[in-house]
Amino acid sequence: MPKHFPLSKEDIVRGRLQNQQIAGAKFDKAEDVVRWLGAVQAQDFAAAIWAVGQRTNDITNAMVEQTFADGAILRTHILRPTWHFVAPEDIHWMLKLTAPRVNAASAYQYRRLELDQAVFKRSNAIIEKTLRDGKQLARAELGSALKKAGIPAIDLRLTYLVIRAELDGVICSGARRGQQFTYALLDERASKSKVLARDESLAELAERYFKSRGPATLQDFAWWSGLTMADAKTGLEMVKSRFVHESLQGQVYWFSDSKSAGKESSLTVYLLPNFDEYVVGYTDRSAIFDASDVKKPDTRGNVLFTHTMVVNGQIMGTWKRTLKAKTVEIELNSFRPLTKTEKQTATDAVERYGRFLDLQVVLL
Hints:
By secondary structure, this protein is α+β, with helices and mostly antiparallel strands. The chain has one domain. About 45% of the residues lie in helices and about 15% in strands. It has helices at about 10-20, 30-35, 45-55, 60-70, 90-105, 105-110, 115-130, 140-150, 155-165, 185-190, 200-215, 220-225, 230-240, 275-280, 340-355, and strands spanning about 40, 75-80, 80-85, 170-175, 185, 245-250, 250-255, 270, 310, 315-325, 325-335, 360-364. Helix 7 (about 115-130) packs across helix 9. The protein starts with 8 loop residues before the first helix and ends with a strand.
């Protein structure tokens, strides 16, 4: 039987920082971070590269980019209707589990753009033929191939044809061509992917989530995974004996063990990118963000859309970067005046980001 431990808001914050590998990162490779987290939201590519890099022992932007180019981490539409990084061995079972939910969320656009099963079958076949034998092509080049075969494929229609090919397991990310993204055949990039039954997939996703993001609730898992509440509950039920749980303010939190609520005595400041898993991985962000600050990061009232400065686990400000030829300019905007110690620790975090980019930092 799982043991119970008293849980506080501070414990939740410390546990998440540790389990997400933001505090005390134990990985030396980008692919190990992605594998641990299961999936990393990645519609902002540069931000996602930093999200992965921050969770390692000081690897660089170039090293993460090379890992992506080599196909050791892949980028595709998975979980909720957006891009994520995912490990090659996980991509097939995760797609099979979550793609139906993403397709359901896209159903309106499919109808509006006159995209049905017959069109998808034809477009997938054309894309597969076009990319065969290791070819990696940009979206516009896939659009040209589709147009040549008689399938209108421009603007949003091309976007959804490509997304559907991702969801159907035909394509995934290829290496970047300069700053341009390309697509490759999934089976050529992930030939050793796991094959799991549906219940096994639910259990695997639930275990991966609560190990890497606990303390977290069932509702958090359902949000992050994009699964129905019923499926999320089924997944948790199958693995809950491996976790402990505790209630706080009417919510039940699940986490690996008492170490998830471990103490950390020193001050910490982290510069997290927009859509970082520390923020986007939970539907309830009250443990890390004061509702009174809701308009401070972003006028839309959504903390996901901006880079955040996290002080002792709490979102206490935002930051911006401006890339120059040999430097990166960083501007910090705190919600309240920082103490002298906080300023120094924030400066250390800025310097770490500069090392990641291999650029000299100018703190504005």
